[in-house]
């Protein structure tokens, strides 16, 4: 045996850490033994899961949807919906064709008819790019996607390609001849985002989801025939690759957790989370939580960035990898609308109704609960790969894996701090400030004896003096709304969204119509060759419907354009980004915002002179805040041909 004095510092470190991990492993094994006994009363074994799944399958034969009317607390439990999605096949060319099944019964408002099952296993996966997501029908969730969508049914910016010779724009210079791209002026980024959402929740339409389920009740969509439906978003091998190639930090990007004997523990180390150490924890029964997987996985990032256009709020995600026969978190509720996408394996979920009115639609997450505090579950479901489970904020939940199968799921979160209360928090103080400045009534002194009739001691008093004081306060509150700067407060709330939003993911066609892919380049001879020219005839539009916000603040002669185009891939990883423009430029920016998705020739911007029009357009172009309808003509110097197909 080697003495400690003969070991290198690194070897001592390795041995000490190995001993520590062995201690953790021993402790976790003891906890797991106790957990197996505890698990029986919660029916978490494989047999119970199998029976539950079999019961759900039998139920789906009788009815495609479990349904009842939404209720308020104090009445019967809120309803739960289970929907089985129809089968779809992804073709080799990327187009999507739905297998048409005839149903004798009609869809009704409270049910979604189930298509008959196919014996063949088929998938709808996002293997390479989320541009393969189908454009779902708006009215009939079982409609043929290939016929209802434009072109190939992909929710991308439409483009028309054709060979076209570019004209000479500068004397003595040549312009490259390449495939011409033309962005559609009728398809909004919001419309494209709605296609992504329709794919996410298929076969439930967007309209039905927001009218029947949103902020009301859970819904589970089962995809018996599409177990790889979400497979392109993330994978266990992808997580391993992420750990090895990136500086993934404990507490910032990853958490190591366990839950046993009704107690949750976080077992994070410090510094970088190396793959070998993470997998050692996993092997010993710990769950792995990725706090911002969209930063490192482009497909997930594009999905989140697109969904922001639907929700008008930051859309984030966490990923959870749980070994077999384990649970990583205690029962709790969250302050977000949760969409649980099962990627690999399976997991048993239990969802509980909010315990009281104050916990419905909460603005903060709860602490961990004990089993005794949460009562009986509203929903028990065995979530398998390809399934999705939605539940509103305030619904308590817990989940565990069963023996013999791991679980990888992604929770997409939306609508955090995006309520009426959040708007009022900005509006009411501003309204009071305006009222105090402009209305003498708010500045008048209180009656001499006011404190003799107000306060806890006098709360039950019905004296005429107290009644008069209360009437006065009510009148001032009613009057306060007249001074409420609703639009200014809304701009401030929108600024919060702009700061937190993911930057837009541009398609290759969009990049070629932006400063990101259509500009000067450096060549081997040390010279910049090629330049793009904005002319008064150049049509342009803003990059996304919600990429910027025009806000008038302190300075009287200028306004600010807050934007998300340069945001970090980590939430609030950078300070909020903005540019300042002269106040007389504001009408032109307003025109671009209101006219979106239509393209506006620079010459049509409502500014007094051509120089101002070009100046504003150039400022927006250089910040990637606008796209041109077609790639700008690239001027080539010295006869050098520029390859403008580089999408990097």
Automatic annotation (TrEMBL):
Entry keyword Transcription: yes
Annotated EC: 1.14.11.27
JmjC domain: residues covered: 286-431
Entries under Pfam families matching the protein: JmjC_2, WHD_RIOX1
Broad class of where this protein is predominantly found: nucleus
Keyword annotations: Chromatin regulator, Dioxygenase, Iron, Metal-binding, Nucleus, Oxidoreductase, Repressor, Transcription, Transcription regulation
GO biological process, any: response to ethanol
Catalytic reaction annotation: N(6),N(6)-dimethyl-L-lysyl(36)-[histone H3] + 2 2-oxoglutarate + 2 O2 = L-lysyl(36)-[histone H3] + 2 formaldehyde + 2 succinate + 2 CO2
UniProt remark on cofactor binding: Binds 1 Fe(2+) ion per subunit.
Location of this chain's protein in the cell: Nucleus
Cofactor: Fe(2+)
Cited InterPro entries: JmjC_dom (IPR003347), NO66-like (IPR039994), WHD_RIOX1 (IPR049043)
Taxonomy, superkingdom: Eukaryota
Identification of the protein by name: Bifunctional lysine-specific demethylase and histidyl-hydroxylase
Organism taxonomic ancestry: Eukaryota, Metazoa, Ecdysozoa, Arthropoda, Hexapoda
